[in-house]
Amino acid sequence: MSAFDSQLMPASTGQSQQAASAAATPVPADISVRFALLRFPLIVAVVYIHSFVTTVGLSSFRIGNMYSSPTSWMVREFFSQELCRLAVPGFFLISGYMFFWNFQGSLQGYATRLKKRVPTLLVPYILWNLLVIGLYAALQSVPAASGFISGQNVPVAQFDAMDWLNAFIGWRGYPAAYQFWFIRDLMIMVLLSLPLYWLLRYASHVVMALMLAAWFLQLLPGIPPFDEPPLFFVAGAYIAYHRIGLAGLDRLGPWLSALTLALACVSTANEVNNLGLGAVPHQLMILSGLASIYWLVGHIRAQSALFKGLMWGAGASFFVFAAHEPLMMGVRKLIYYVVRPDADGALLLYFLIPPLVIGICLVVWSAMRVVMPRVLAVLTGGRA
């Protein structure tokens, strides 16, 4: 039994007081600040993941070809499908850590944490899906706008019960606001947090080892990225439960960063050239990459312009996450329709469209903070 385990065992008044003190311990300042600094860069990475596509579908034809240019494919693969893929496991690890810090596994504590997640997770999840469904319904009802919709999905006016269920739960893959699969899966992990706590208490090392092995062997349920949420949420919970300090990563940071870039190159070549190496280079890149970005943000000087900018961006990160799609899809379709880019032009747009979309989101977020702060607070779960 670990030292932290012993703090949870109510053997005496002194031990109870010790456990209460441990329960009230704030997250170490260095860790909480680094997590905050990572939020906006990880959201930017999410936007670039969704920028990987270089083709658009309209009602009667398609523009662009995803793989017509080997150079474009390799560049996009390296950034969107390798380096930017740190975002999803990074967010789940942070979420698991923050949820389980000071979590004592009681029914009361569990109920309290679930109650707190209703306005921060469930309400935004429902509202953003409603907004997206409403947007598609409006576009489908206007002939001039309906031409910009691929027509591959059932029109909202023809939804049956199963279509509505899929639009909100994403039981066929994604909800209507498809990036909210992250929030859906996070809510599932939160619901499972109480039995997870007891697993961590009595068999944490075994659980962590088995989940890592299952991930490397690709035995976790679902398809990427749906196999990552349970592993990295549990990893964050494991780190928080055992009060594992992360300062040791700073000594390895430069080496891990070099390793991350090398593994990203190998994984890119493996995907583009079909080298048959499987997912291991990518998985190792994820592990070394998470340590690397944690080390990198530790070098940002407090009160510098970059520090202040990232902290400001952290406040906007949820809104950017929620609003960047289907906005980016619409912006991409409009630009492609007007420009009709070739392979080189599509690669340039791959880099330019995300900053444009993020900029629009930040402008709207800033305006809403002034004009309708209460609405913004509801839409972002109180994160505005």
Spatial separation of the terminal alpha carbons: 41 Å
Number of domains: 1
Global shape: globular
Instruction: Give the beta-strand count.
Output: 2
Q: Which regions are unreliable across 5 or more consecutive residues at pLDDT < 50?
A: 1-21
Biggest sheet features: 2 strands, antiparallel
Report the average pLDDT across residues.
Answer: 87
Observed structural traits:
384 residues, mainly alpha, two-stranded antiparallel sheet, 16 helices, 72% helix, disordered N terminus, transmembrane helix, cell membrane, Acyltransferase 3 domain-containing protein, transmembrane
Structure summary:
The protein is mainly α. It has helices at 3-8, 13-23, 29-49, 70-82, 87-100, 107-141, 143-146, 161-169, 181-191, 193-216, 228-241, 249-273, 280-297, 305-339, 343-371, 373-379, and strands at residues 56-57, 62-63.
Q: Could you give the topology of this structure?
A:
Layout: H1 3-8, H2 13-23, H3 29-49, E1 56-57, E2 62-63, H4 70-82, H5 87-100, H6 107-141, H7 143-146, H8 161-169, H9 181-191, H10 193-216, H11 228-241, H12 249-273, H13 280-297, H14 305-339, H15 343-371, H16 373-379
Antiparallel strand pairs: 1-2
Helix pairs in contact: 3-5, 3-14, 4-12, 5-11, 6-9, 10-11, 12-13, 14-15, 15-16
Keywords: Cell membrane, Membrane, Transmembrane, Transmembrane helix
Domain Acyltransferase: 37-364
Membrane topology: Multi-pass membrane protein
